[in-house]
Specification:
alpha/beta, Rossmann fold, 7 helices, 4 strands
């Protein structure tokens, strides 16, 4: 077992080196490490925002490249990149976090096309609110109406793994989350951002 802070510079190389030294071949990569920040952006600590971007974006990107190369050389493999339901819309009060997950969406779905013919599949998972310590770390307060969409970590993990091994392009766990994602793509962006901002702002007393 290797314990590694993936927010540290060159963390992905450290992981690959450790795997290589053990003579292991990696056939499955799950990029699940990440965290969020909720609040007024002007009041956030920039070093903490940068650390979040390093983990959510840079580490994920580097790990994907390093291990996808190894898998392509071996002729096959599976990658699951964990984005978020927030990837589908700019979200006031979690704007920087949502932007990192929008990056995961764009990067992962584009790279999936590039991996055609390599035997390597890339699936993107878009979970909504999940029963983990995520909200506690993010200091997030969510409106009561969103409680209807909460799924257990086990349910989200099972959905993600099933989709990955089925080599699906994407998975949005939960009916309500699927509906929300649909409306985020068809309704005017300005309206979605306004409604999201009002709901999250009211939940946090802003």
């Amino acid at each position: 077992m290797l314990a590694q802070d993936l927010a540290a510079p060159n963390a992905a190389l450290t992981v690959l080196d450790a795997v290589t030294q053990k003579g292991l071949a990696v056939g499955v990569l799950i990029n699940n490490a990440g965290y969020g920040m909720q609040g007024k952006f002007l009041e956030m600590s920039m070093p903490e925002v940068e650390r979040m971007v390093q983990l959510n974006v840079t580490a994920l990107t580097h790990l994907t490249q390093l291990f996808a190369r190894e898998m392509a050389r071996a002729g096959g493999g599976y990658i699951l990149n964990v984005a978020s339901a927030a990837a589908f819309l700019p979200s006031p009060f979690v704007g920087a976090y949502a932007a990192t997950k929008a990056y995961v969406l764009s990067f992962s779905e584009a790279l999936r096309f590039e991996l055609r013919g390599t035997g390597v599949s890339l699936t993107t998972l878009y979970p909504g609110i999940t029963t983990t310590e995520f909200n506690e770390v993010a200091h997030a307060k969510t409106p009561a109406v969103m409680n209807l969409s909460i799924l257990s970590a086990n349910a989200v993990a099972r959905a993600g793994l099933r989709a990955m091994f089925a080599r699906k392009r994407a998975m949005i766990p939960g009916f309500i989350n699927k509906v929300n994602a649909f409306f985020c793509t068809v309704l005017p962006r300005g309206l979605i951002v306004y409604v999201t901002g009002k709901i999250l702002g009211r939940a946090n007393g802003w």
